[in-house]
Specification:
Length: 378
């Protein structure tokens, strides 16, 4: 192993000189070369870009993959330079469970057939989510990570090198200042007994310090220019990140549009189911379903209304039940019965009626009432 003692001693001397200069600056015992205002603004802008890019990157990771265990697993695979194994989305897992349940319950039953339809929709939603995750990772996360792990590391390295050059420059300035002070003092009080005048030695020391200062100033100026060019490149980074952000928004909008399309299709499929299954429309969220808003599914047709005369309907000998009204309901026509929340009425059904409606009686009043507004008690 090559062991260069001279180089080691030189590096140790430089490190010690920088440490002394840095300590004296912190203690206010040494002057510090200040950068110009434009350079300081570039440094501040770069730090701001790095900090916010890092926060946006981390939170986007959480958005795309909420499971911290999965994020750690992906990180380890990336560091080991191995391909991340395919991982099913939550929608795909739910779809699998629903389809397996449908097989157990029987695909011919209302519940089993509905499980199949919903499970298929969840599978498509999971596929759309997978495409969104892949697209966002490529178009948005990867450029941000490349900046943090590539460009920013280069900028940080050059900034550290610039700081070292500044410390060297200020140390040379301090040595030159001391040499000139000693030279001036020796010139003011000459010692005629010395065979070699002391001011000659001090003059040579000052000349050497001036040479070191010129070299340090040149290296500092060169490094400052390199660092300035890298910092000015932050503007290009912003432009690139803006483009990536727009692509991320487009991918997100496409994903949500697909999800909305799949859910509308599922609603139409479930809405066409026969029997007792009824799925409210999206406008019903947070409020009771108004059967009058869905004439094709909820309200009897004109033919059925003519055929069914409320006044002629008689309660069956058995089969009447007591129901509690959950919400207020205003009758749409004379064949319906207005309801008030929390009141109790008697309800029953008659052949030929829509499954979403019952005949309700309250005293001498009688009319059709929507099932969704009732809680059957007995």
């Amino acid at each position: 192993m090559d062991f260069n003692v001279r180089k080691l001693a030189t590096d140790a001397g430089i490190f010690f000189s920088r440490a002394v200069q840095f300590t004296e600056e912190k203690l206010g015992q040494a002057e510090k070369t200040e950068l110009d205002a434009h350079f300081e603004n570039l440094l501040s802008r770069a730090d701001c870009t790095k900090n916010w890019t890092e926060k946006i990157y981390r939170q986007t990771e959480v958005l795309l993959q909420p499971n911290p265990g999965a994020r750690i697993e992906d990180f380890l695979y990336e560091k080991l330079d191995r391909k991340v194994p395919a991982r099913p989305t939550n929608g795909e897992i739910l779809s699998q469970f629903m389809l397996e349940a449908a097989k157990e319950f029987g695909s011919g039953t209302p519940y089993g057939s509905t499980l199949i339809k919903v499970g298929d929709c969840q599978r498509r939603l999971g596929g759309a989510e997978r495409e969104f995750l892949q697209s966002s990772s490529i178009s948005f996360l990867t450029p941000l990570r490349n900046f943090l792990e590539g460009d920013w590391r280069t900028i940080s390295r050059e900034r550290r090198l610039l700081e070292n050059r500044r410390l060297d420059l200020d140390a040379c300035k301090a040595r030159l200042k001391k040499a000139r002070a000693a030279e001036a003092k020796a010139a003011a009080v000459p010692d005629f007994q010395e065979t070699r005048p002391r001011n000659y030695v001090l003059s040579a020391s000052a000349s050497a310090a001036e040479h070191e200062l010129r070299v340090a100033q040149t290296e500092f100026d060169r490094q400052a220019e390199v660092t300035r060019l890298l910092l000015e490149g932050i503007s290009s980074t912003h432009v690139n990140h803006l483009r990536c952000l727009c692509e991320f928004v487009e991918a997100q909008a496409m994903y949500y549009n697909q999800c909305h399309k799949y859910m509308l299709e599922l609603q139409r499929e479930l809405g066409s189911c026969s029997g007792d299954i009824r799925c409210p429309d999206s406008s019903d969220v947070g409020s009771p379903a108004d059967p009058s808003a869905f004439p094709s599914q909820s309200s009897p047709s004109a033919l059925e209304t003519d055929a069914l005369q409320i006044e002629e309907v008689q309660p069956p000998a058995s089969g009447t039940r007591t129901a509690k009204v959950l919400y207020d309901y205003d009758a749409a026509d004379s064949s319906e019965l207005s309801l008030r929340a929390d009141e109790l009425i008697t309800v029953y059904t008659v052949p030929g009626m829509d499954s979403d409606w019952l005949i309700g009686e309250r005293g001498n009043q009688k009319g059709k009432v929507p099932v969704t507004y009732l809680e059957l008690l007995s």
